[in-house]
What does this fold into?
Amino acid sequence: MPDTERTQVGIVGAGPAGLLLAHLLDRQGIASVVLEARSREYVENRIRAGVLEQGTADLLTASGVGERMARLGLPHEGIILRFGGQDHRIDFRALTGKAVMVYSQHLVVRDLIAARLAAGGRIVFEAERVSVHDFDTDRPRIRYQENGAERELECDFIAGCDGFHGVCRPSIPPGVLTEFERVYPFGWLGILADAPPSSHELIYANHERGFSLLSMRSPTVSRLYLQCAPDEDIEAWSDARIWAELQTRLAGPGFTLREGKITQKGVTPMRSFVVEPMQCGRLFLLGDAAHIVPPTGAKGLNLAAGDVAVLSRALGAWYAAGDESGLAAYSATCLRRVWKVQRFSWWMTSMLHRFETHSPFERRVQLAELDYVASSVAASTALAENYIGLPFI
Ligand code: FAS
Ligand code: PHB
It folds into this structure.
């Protein structure tokens, strides 16, 4: 017989969604247990997103985990669109009064793990064979193995925060979910390099040879991406070849791209994905478990934070007053924002990447769209208000 433990909310996954949810629930006096398949060392060093919307940064600060972000985060008041050999700055502060925070996802994860453990929170790392059960009843259960021992977690609710390849979404019976997907004919080859960022702000470049992005992680670490085939073999890309391609695609007026030691490289395929609804009985899906966006709009992590804001509020109302309305409306509330963010991420991706299937007419229309965004206050405001982040609720 497995050892049985009881909590209020069982959370599968210690990425940004699962950890932020556990943190916000704890601040409402709601107990949770987080079950994570990987080691603490692995999740704390997994390099992914780099841009926090104003709402996400404010949520971290307001909930008491923003100290290191305040010290190391880089506030950014705009981005640069580079096309046709020219630069066009989108001024977030002037257009929206807001900004974004460049702060690496793995540091958000470290900050949240530290806060949970300092508060006595329970995170089971290297949990194996996690499975979810009876979420169509009021006594859902999670089974797993810890150091080879069978365990069972009894809870009131299960939060599926286990990412795109997790176990929770596939555990929902056939016929309940509808999937929406668009797979893009390209991916991103991303690098981390010990090179001071060559620009104070992010540069999104549309070049004849393909898209590239200059981002950063700190005053001494650059994060750069270039569009590649979705199944690109990273072994075919020497450091010299990567830098040469970035030099070509990021060439701009008065711009010099500083090179340095590449410390990490990888290829990420691109898709847009949404599942409806984002809940089934007492199982709720959050973050990448429910939706994936192409990273062009810097939205993946921020969408996860939005889902957490909605569910943590709804669970708080249920425990405080038995109010079920927020839980019943969880999917509809999240999906309104999810689809607007999907649209923006699809639009940024379509506008900035080279499509081999584009006719010469479509290529001209794409360049005209960039020119319109760069030259119209209305169009650049629309980009800015989506980039800094739509309201969570
Ligand atoms: P996560 O995937 O971060 O976390 C899920 C967690 O669940 C993981 O720790 C996983 O180990 C765990 N898990 C999975 N299955 C489990 C099981 N069966 N049992 C227990 N635990 C399980 N977004 C951006 O905005 N900008 C970017 O540049 C960017 N780059 C990315 C690069 C890559 C390679 C990937 C995969 C994603 C990238 N994203 C980016 C998106 C990414 O940041 C996600 O949106 C973000 O991690 C979402 O957080 P979570 O929903 O918590 O999912
Ligand atoms: C990053 O810094 O990793 C990053 C920034 C902006 C994006 C995507 C990725 O749109």
Summary: The chain has twelve helices and 21 strands. The radius of gyration is 21 Å.
